[in-house]
# Entry
Amino acid sequence: MVICAGGGGIPIMYPSSRPGEVIGVEAVIDKDLASELLAEDVAAGLFVMATDVDGVYVGWATPQQRRLDRATPEELAGYQFAAGSMGPKVEAASRFAAKTGQRAAIGSLADIAGIVAGRAGTSVVPAAGA
# Structure
């Protein structure tokens, strides 16, 4: 069963100075982190983020670039990923794997069957013994 969530919407908050009222605020609702929360709440056995690249790369756009097939949240924390693109996906996948003990995966929509089967994309798995 596929369950999806997205970003967007109108961010609001309850100001402490006017209890019971809400005000609009400038903020971004990140679709990757919103999806991770949904996957966690429904106790998903697998969290997949389909994107336009075939996985998570370190050294992106350099001669040393390489795709990660499998990594733990701890391993991913040692790398820098672009805040506006792969960074939120890696953060969401890492959170899911660490919190639930289940696999998260990032890869191309064209490879979705392989990603689900664990043969394509990048799998983010909990650390051994977690």
